[in-house]
Amino acid sequence: MRRLTSLLAPHHAARKGLLQLDDEAALAGYPRHIEGCPEHQETLVLRGRRVQMVSWGDPRRQPYVLLPPLDATGRDAMAAWVRALTASGYAVVAFAREGRTATTQTSTLLDTTGDMLEVGRRCGEAAAVIGHSLGAMSVVLALHQGLRAKQAILVSAQADPRAALQRFVDRSGMGPRVGARMLALLESRIGQGLDALQAHRIAPAIGIPVLVVHDLLDDEVPWDEGERFARHLTAARLLTTLDLGHHGVLNEPVVLRDCVRFLQGEAIGDKVVSSPNLPYGLG
Questions:
Q1: What gap in Å lies between CA 38 and CA 268, rounded to an integer?
Q2: Which DSSP letter does residue 203 get?
Q3: Does the reported pTM lie above 0.90?
């Protein structure tokens, strides 16, 4: 039926596909009720939208780590990160928008970026900001737009929104006509082309130390997208894992240990040297 609809009514199929993409890309929020980590919650009203913010520790008195929203699997895995970070002397601040509707949403990626900038303005400069997958891309966009942070960690990061859309179209079997219409609808919605959001266009302006963590066998976001960030961010290092998968990286204690060591000033991972012959990725 999906293929038939794609052939007979590509514009309708594109609209339905965009709604499905929105559902898949929707971020579930942040970890809750972490044993041994008391939390403080508050509601922020930001330009007509409501954002739930939770903190562990006191970000006004401690260096704090900022976490954008995660998908459901990442949200559960991040509880161990909150425990490790607070045990290392950091406060942790996370946030998520209350609800979303078809009439008000612009893009999960751009919504998250805007909310992160507002939370950062309220809390002040972060010791670090950590994002996973689409959240990692929003971290880079927020840093590019002025988010103040001393360090960043990008885990399983998407570097190319246009390639992510194409992967969704291919996975859904919608075909190139529907994919082209989805791209046009999405770019119309956000008011700019997806090419402007690619890593090689925004990453070079970011000068803070960044650790990029990506699994070589990631079957959701290819390893070369993490490698692309590592090449185009001016002070980045790449930590490559093997056979952990897209979400398994978050669950691996060794990765968590290395990320905390990175925040404490140790050189983790490898420095990737960029080549003008590979400006956008590996293929």
A1: 30
A2: G
A3: no
